[in-house]
């Protein structure tokens, strides 16, 4: 983790370079990145925007259920990523509960 309490990961420039791999087939890139960064990692999406990938079920439960008010779901998560990950708890909007 860095001083800002976010996990280490890819800078914006690194994310741009990896975007073609991600768009073609995201699962191998995500799997390899989790190995490189010891599971949880972040990806810079531009100024003050980060995507954090979390494989730990306990932490996912904490973020999505126990402490969900402190985490925003971006349009990227709610409109784009569900194509690859399905329409589950991660992509529910507040009115769908």
Structural class: alpha+beta
**Strands of the biggest beta sheet: in what spatial order?**
1-2-3
Tally of contiguous helical segments: 4
Shape: globular
Ends distance: 32 Å
* Spatial extent as radius of gyration: 14 Å
Total beta strand runs: 3
Q: Report mean pLDDT, rounded to a whole number.
A: 78
| Range of strand content | 5-15%
Instruction: Report the biggest beta sheet as strand number plus sense, adding barrel if it closes.
Output: 3 strands, mixed
Ranges where pLDDT stays below 50 over 5 or more residues in a row are none
Helix content: 40-55%
Order of helices and strands: EHHEEHH
What does this structure look like?
The structure is a single chain. This protein is of the alpha+beta class. The protein has four helices and three strands, in the order βααββαα. The chain has a three-stranded mixed sheet with strand order 1-2-3. Helix 1 packs across helix 2. The radius of gyration is 14 Å and the shape is globular.
Task: Provide a short characterization of the protein structure.
The protein has 97 residues and is an alpha+beta fold. The chain has helices at 12-24, 26-36, 57-66, 75-85; strands at residues 9-10, 41-46, 49-53. 5% of the residues are buried.
Topology:
Blueprint: E1 9-10, H1 12-24, H2 26-36, E2 41-46, E3 49-53, H3 57-66, H4 75-85
Parallel strand pairs: 1-2
Antiparallel strand pairs: 2-3
Helix pairs in contact: 1-2
Describe the structure using short key phrases:
alpha+beta; 4 helices; 3 strands; 13% strand
């Amino acid at each position: 983790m860095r001083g800002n309490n976010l996990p280490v990961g890819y800078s914006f420039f690194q994310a741009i370079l990896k975007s073609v791999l991600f768009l073609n087939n995201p699962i191998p890139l995500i799997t390899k990145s989790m190995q490189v960064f010891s599971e949880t990692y972040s990806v810079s999406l531009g100024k003050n925007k980060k995507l954090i990938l979390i494989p730990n079920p306990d932490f996912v439960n904490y973020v999505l259920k126990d402490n969900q008010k402190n985490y925003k779901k971006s349009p990227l998560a709610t409109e784009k990523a569900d194509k690859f990950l399905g329409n589950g708890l991660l992509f529910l909007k507040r009115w769908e509960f």
